[in-house]
Each structure stands twice: as structure tokens, then as C-alpha cells.
Specification:
Helices cover 51% and strands 13% of the residues. The protein is globular. It has 191 residues and is α/β, with parallel strands linked by helices. Helix 8 packs across helix 10.
């Protein structure tokens, strides 16, 4: 079943409204090909900063690696404009066109990261405690997402240690449990 789905990553690509508009266009195209939206996997990868407490989230918002990611790893700066911010890499920045890692010195990357306010990180990533993150993710599910993949930068990038994955796993499990509760789904059994 090739071609039976569509995916993107958010909030880097756009807002829930943007996603709902994309789903509408996608549905229209499917109809032209005698397919329905219900048969499709509509996958979103959610780039998250999820921590157990709001204080820990606030600390993560100041992490320079996370702030660099928010500036550099976007398909365009349109989401920055929609959130009311200016990307320090410029209005026409595009990761796929402009990101050449060999051209960036550590100092240049840190300079850009230092220009990204924590408020922009909060606006351009799923940020918060598990409940807060689930509420943000829920808006995309309501817009049409039926498969969610969460990537929690707080545990991996923020801590700079793979062992931090255990804590990250706990908040991810909690976030998924809240989403399951919201939608009446049960925990899948591992075989």
C-alpha cells in the first residue's frame, strides 16, 4: 500500500489551522483518485520539549542547542512570522536550501542561538508538562492527524546525555496516556 498516507512535522511546518487546510487539499486530491481520507495514514512528527514540571520546561527553553534547532531546522520562516517573531537567520531561510553544516562555525551557530528568545521556542515547539503537551497535540489531531510520533528534545538534546532518555521516556508515556484518555483509546499490548 504505497502512497496511502501523508506526513509532516509540527509545529515547524505550521499551525493546526495550516494542517487542517492541508488535510482539506489532501482529501480533495484523494477524491480525484477514488480514495478516501479515512483510508489514509495522516502522520505528524511532533517536535516537543516535555518535562515533568513547568520549571524544567523553562530551563529547557534556554538551552542553546534547542534554540539553534528552532532557528535553523524549519522548511521556511513562515511559522516564525505567524507566531510574531523574526528568525535571526533571515526572512527567506529554508533548512533544505540553506543549511550547509560545513559553513557554520560553532561561534556563528551560538550567535544565532543566542538571538532566539525562549518565547519563540515555546511558540514553535510543543512545550510543557505532559498534560500541556497533550492539549497542544490534541489540536492537530482534531485537525486531521491520525498517527502521532513524538520526539522529545528535552530529554536528549537538553541533557546532552543518552541516559536522560529514561526520564524523557517517562514524560512521553504520560503524554501518550493523556492522549489515549482524551480519545478513549487503550494502551496497546506489547507482544
Amino acid at each position: 500500500r504505497l502512497g496511502d498516507g501523508w506526513g509532516a512535522y509540527v509545529p515547524g511546518c505550521g499551525t493546526p489551522k495550516w494542517y487542517a487546510d492541508c488535510i482539506k487539499q489532501y482529501s480533495d486530491k484523494l477524491g480525484q483518485n477514488h480514495k478516501t481520507l479515512e483510508d489514509q495514514k495522516r502522520t505528524l512528527v511532533f517536535v516537543c520539549i516535555i518535562e515533568e514540571t513547568e520549571e524544567a520546561v523553562e530551563r529547557a527553553l534556554h538551552n542553546l542547542a534547542i534554540r539553534w534547532d528552532v532557528a535553523a531546522f524549519l522548511p521556511s520562516t513562515e511559522v516564525w512570522k505567524e507566531a510574531g517573531f523574526t528568525n535571526p537567520l533571515g526572512d527567506d531561510w529554508s533548512y533544505s536550501r540553506d543549511m550547509l553544516p560545513t559553513k557554520w562555525t560553532r561561534e556563528a551557530a551560538l550567535n544565532i542561538a543566542n538571538q532566539v528568545p525562549p518565547e519563540a521556542v515555546r511558540a514553535l515547539r510543543i512545550c510543557g508538562t505532559p498534560r500541556q503537551a497533550a492539549e497542544q497535540i490534541q489540536r492537530y489531531i482534531e485537525a486531521g492527524c491520525n498517527y502521532a510520533c513524538l520526539v522529545n528534545y528535552a530529554g536528549l538534546v537538553g541533557a546532552g546525555s543518552w541516559s536522560a532518555g529514561a526520564t524523557g521516556s517517562k514524560v512521553m508515556d504520560e503524554t501518550f496516556a493523556i492522549l489515549r484518555e482524551l480519545y478513549g483509546h487503550t494502551q496497546p499490548k506489547i507482544k
